[in-house]
């Protein structure tokens, strides 16, 4: 005992001298306590050979910017081990003496599923004397012992001592949050990502129809692609697909589901034969009891089982109501996306437009043309393997219409390239065809954008890639939610996610003049003022053709000025020109009055706006003089005071003009 006391006293004297020389006022601030001989610390920060225990202690105190909080020393091989800035614990180490400050180097006690907070420290080890860990059980039942709060406090009786308020047996049930749980006993609404059964067996993919081929199912009708898709796409059985949320089995991969209204979610597994097994999907903690008599908005997947999912059926929750005359009708409900979705967004590394603004990247119109494996992309218009299996509707429209900005009289301009795109319904990211017969197509490595806030501008004339937040038309009227206009007879290809509040300007119709929206219940489209994005050098561009800047020529090359594409916007009588899109109603009346025979002869009204109206791209502020109708008076425009049209004074180009 005397030798031991002498050793500690000598060490204390050495440390006190060091502390005073470093202007530390109190020895208690760095008091070391000895551990039983034969024990040492793990997670050693540094190790050296020192001639004595005292020198090892000095090295610990001299650590910068703070002394280490523990050290171990062995006299036989002079090993000095320092512990700093990390958690540690004592283990058997023969011949070692170990010392520690009044700190807790061991990890603090845990209570599974409990929420943890800290008082007097930030949770980084070692914990200081008096540092407290607070445990809160967020489950409605609370802790199993009935307590509301439990704590663990680092105390100074001995190093690494935690004073806990709970027995080791205390429990806290896990809080299960939808969608990774069941809201109802049967769990037909479950759309989580568990893909193994309660016995640990891996689930099979639903789209492979593991329970039998599509032809063997007693339901129908089928979609047979054997003649249009040489790549061998399986037949889709619409009756079976209707059992799945969103009416497509492909997007559910091999996740547990309850497609046949069994006792709870299940899946197919492969054994000596194809079998079914239940999955261990817990009930949601905050699930409400709802019986069959409720009138809440829902999206029952069995509605209209013979209608393909891509026809906008069941696109959102809906309900029945009694309308005028006592007739029962239905309407979509205003159900917003869950707030948690925004928090799950990952931060990317790309810069727009060479990046994705969403996980699927359907809005991507960049120039990447090779896959993740480095294979070169094939041109889309080459159709190397027939019509892709997820291009719908296949019979009514050609496959080119699946591409953004392709609904023009020259769609080949939009698909005559080999850039990565995501034009179909099912693919998870932009992709392309490759010259490899086994795979036929591959995903491209398109990064997410650094800034996931979509730019408030368009890259192309039609702007179908625009996914910004503008929600008012050029007439100043607020846009109405798109779901108000998605009925059975209106088939719109929705390339971004739509919830009840989605009233942002979009170009779902390939409107010639860019993004638009419905501003009245009568269904009148109102153009939106979505400008072109700045050029690469950061400048603006007033005149574009197909989205590309063209040089300004402020003169006409012929007497009528048919090819004039300058920026003159004041008439010869001094009237300011009205933007062409603001005078859209006048344009329609003008075309219908003067070109009625052409329209009856088969020329579409939209063709006038798309091809005849102007050589360059129109946009909401475009108010430049043009002569799209071969007017003998030359370039003209509508007057800003809405008092009809007036002609513009455009000079004839001279030989010196560019």
From TrEMBL:
Kindly indicate where the leader peptide sits in this chain: none
A Pfam family of the record is Kringle
Q: Which PROSITE patterns match?
A: KRINGLE_1, KRINGLE_2
Q: Ranges for the Kringle domain?
A: 186-284, 294-338, 360-449, 459-533, 561-653
| Keywords of this entry | Disulfide bond, Kringle
Specify whether Endoplasmic reticulum is a keyword of the entry.
no
Return the protein name. Answer: Kringle domain-containing protein
Q: Which organism is it from?
A: Darwinula stevensoni
């Amino acid at each position: 005992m005397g030798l031991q006391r002498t050793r500690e006293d000598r060490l204390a004297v050495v440390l006190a001298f060091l502390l005073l020389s470093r202007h530390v006022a109190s020895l208690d601030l760095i008091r070391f306590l000895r551990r039983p001989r034969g024990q040492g610390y793990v997670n050693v920060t540094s190790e050296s050979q020192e001639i004595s225990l005292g020198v090892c202690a000095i090295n610990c105190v001299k650590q910068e910017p703070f002394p280490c909080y523990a050290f171990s020393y062995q006299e036989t091989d002079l090993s000095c081990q320092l512990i700093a800035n990390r958690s540690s614990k004592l283990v058997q180490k023969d011949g070692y003496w170990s010392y520690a400050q009044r700190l807790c180097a061991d990890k603090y006690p845990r209570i599974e599923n409990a929420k943890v907070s800290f008082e007097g420290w930030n949770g980084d080890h070692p914990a200081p004397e008096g540092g407290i860990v607070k445990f809160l059980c967020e489950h409605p039942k609370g802790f199993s012992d009935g307590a509301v709060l439990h704590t663990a406090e680092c105390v100074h009786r001995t190093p690494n001592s935690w004073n806990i308020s709970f027995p080791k047996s205390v429990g806290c049930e896990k809080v299960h949050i939808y969608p990774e749980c069941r809201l109802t006993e049967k769990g037909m609404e479950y759309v989580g990502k568990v893909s193994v059964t309660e016995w640990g067996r891996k689930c099979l993919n639903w789209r492979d129809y593991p329970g039998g081929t599509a032809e063997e199912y007693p339901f129908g009708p089928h979609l047979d692609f054997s003649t249009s898709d040489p790549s061998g796409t399986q037949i889709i059985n619409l009756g079976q697909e209707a059992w799945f949320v969103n009416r497509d089995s492909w997007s559910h991969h091999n996740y547990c589901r309850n497609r046949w209204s069994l006792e709870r979610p299940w899946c197919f597994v492969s054994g000596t034969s194809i079998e079914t097994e239940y999955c261990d999907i817990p009930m949601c903690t905050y699930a409400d009891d709802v019986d069959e008599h409720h009138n809440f908005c829902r999206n029952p997947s069995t509605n209209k089982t013979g209608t393909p999912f891509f026809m906008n059926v069941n696109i959102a929750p809906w309900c029945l109501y009694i309308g005028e005359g006592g007739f029962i009708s239905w309407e979509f409900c205003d159900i917003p996306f869950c707030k948690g979705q925004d928090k799950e967004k990952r931060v990317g590394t790309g810069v727009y437009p060479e990046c994705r603004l969403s996980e699927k990247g359907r809005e991507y119109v960049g120039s990447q043309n090779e896959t993740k494996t480095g294979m070169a992309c094939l041109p889309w218009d080459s159709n190397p393997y027939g019509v892709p299996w997820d291009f719908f509707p296949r019979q009514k429209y050609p496959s080119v219409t699946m591409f953004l900005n392709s609904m023009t009289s020259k769609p080949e301009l939009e698909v005559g390239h080999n850039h990565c795109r995501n034009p179909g319904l099912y693919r998870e990211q932009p992709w392309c065809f490759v010259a490899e017969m086994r795979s036929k197509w591959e995903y491209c490595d398109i990064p997410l954008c650094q800034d996931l806030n979509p730019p408030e501008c368009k890259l192309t004339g039609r702007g179908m890639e625009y996914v910004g937040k503008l929600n008012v038309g050029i007439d100043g009227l607020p846009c109405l939610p798109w779901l108000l206009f998605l009925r059975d007879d209106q088939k719109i290809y929705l390339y971004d996610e739509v919830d009840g509040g989605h009233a942002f300007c979009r170009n779902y119709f390939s409107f010639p003049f860019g993004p638009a929206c419905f501003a009245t219940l009568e269904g009148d489209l109102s153009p939106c003022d979505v400008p072109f994005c700045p050029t690469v050098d950061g400048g603006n561009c007033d005149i574009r053709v197909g989205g590309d800047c063209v040089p300004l020529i402020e003169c006409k090359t012929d007497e009528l000025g048919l090819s004039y594409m300058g920026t003159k916007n004041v008439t010869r009588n001094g009237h300011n020109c009205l933007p062409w899109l603001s005078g859209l109603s006048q344009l329609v009346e003008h075309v219908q009055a003067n070109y009625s025979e052409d329209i009856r002869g088969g020329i579409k009204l939209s063709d006038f706006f798309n091809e005849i109206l102007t050589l360059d791209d129109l946009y909401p502020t475009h108010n430049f003089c043009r002569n799209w109708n071969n007017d003998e008076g030359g370039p003209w425009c509508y007057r800003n005071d809405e008092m009809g049209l007036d002609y513009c004074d455009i000079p004839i180009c001279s030989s010196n003009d560019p």
